[in-house]
Design goal:
Helix content: 40-55%
Number of domains: 2
Largest sheet: 7 strands, mixed
Shape: elongated
Strand order of the largest sheet: 5-4-3-6-7-9-8
CATH topology of the largest domain: Rossmann fold
Oligomer: single chain
CATH superfamily of the largest domain: Vaccinia Virus protein VP39
Structural class: alpha/beta
Number of helices: 12
Radius of gyration: 21 Å
Number of strands: 9
CATH architecture of the largest domain: 3-Layer(aba) Sandwich
Length: 289
């Protein structure tokens, strides 16, 4: 069986299974198993080893069962960087790049305000997971970035990504809901977080692939999914310097409620940033008390 034949067979099976991006996923899986690029799949007409063809079929079976492609490949791209992923850590999503863009915007805003300040800017990424937000941000700024993660499995990927992407991000193993964790960090100019925010209803209707991801990184621990926004905002506002900013990724339709939480905690100049689908995906506010 040639590369093209093997890839086409997987593509047909994926289409039959209802996998939306069947062509792309079949190609990516073929490239992964045979260590080739797209051009080789199209042009290499040589017969491939049976062992590799069998391996491709096995992984295709795994994907058809609902297992995430990202976990099969062991890595996934985010903001132009390849992050290592696997069971126990949330898979980076394109929508979350909006949080990175918001962070860079706010850091630029802070720098313009404090032109005479020679101290470095300090940023914390809470509920960091793979570290995708923290590392992507750090690659585009001189700020000192801390990545806080509680789950041991996720923290393993966080430290691994810092290492293989040669990042300056400082990993912090700790619970963002505990005061002892924030006491380990310096006063901050900016806090970013993509906390668990799915509602109880959302958790009852997860896609098959998402069911393999850690539930504690998805579920917002309340019927409305807003538990972490309430707790983090109330606890971590004291860690911000005067005039510091806090920014969250939010779920569709949560903007008004999260804005209210931030305003009740003394945040002003509330703003939003939309994702590529036009949905308000990030909310930010300034703490000037």
């Amino acid at each position: 069986m040639t590369l093209r034949e093997a890839c086409r067979e997987v593509e047909r099976r994926f289409q039959k299974a209802g996998i939306v991006s069947s062509v792309l996923e079949a190609r990516m899986l073929t490239e992964f198993v045979f260590h080739v690029d797209r051009q080789a799949i199209l042009l290499d007409l040589s017969e491939q080893p049976d062992s590799q063809v069998s391996r491709l079929k096995q992984l295709a079976d795994q994907r058809i069962s609902g297992y995430p492609l990202q976990y099969i490949l062991g890595s996934w791209d985010f903001y132009g960087l390849s992050f290592r992923v696997g069971e126990g850590v949330l898979i980076p999503r394109p929508d979350t790049e909006t949080l990175v863009e918001s962070g860079l915007y706010l850091l630029e805003k802070i720098e313009k305000t404090d032109k005479t300040d020679t101290e470095p800017l300090y940023v914390a990424d809470l509920c960091s997971g793979t570290g995708c937000v923290a590392i992507a941000l750090e690659k585009h700024t001189t700020a000192q970035v801390y990545a806080v993660e509680y789950a041991a499995a996720a923290f393993k990927y966080l430290t691994e990504n810092i290492r293989h992407l040669t990042s300056r991000v400082q990993p912090v193993l700790g619970d963002v809901l505990q005061k002892t964790t924030l006491e380990r960090l310096p006063a901050l100019d900016l806090i970013l977080s993509n906390p668990p925010y799915l509602t109880a209803e959302d958790m009852n209707h997860l896609q098959r692939e998402v069911q393999y991801e850690p539930s504690d990184a998805l579920y917002g621990q309340a019927e409305d999914g807003l538990y972490f926004y309430r707790q983090i905002t109330a606890l971590w506002k004291s860690k911000l310097k005067t005039g510091g900013w806090m920014a969250y990724e939010i779920g569709a339709g949560q903007e008004a409620e999260v804005a209210q939480i931030m305003q009740e905690n003394g945040f002003e100049h509330i703003g939003f940033r939309k994702d590529l689908s036009g949905i308000p995906r990030v909310i930010y506010g300034q703490y000037d008390i």
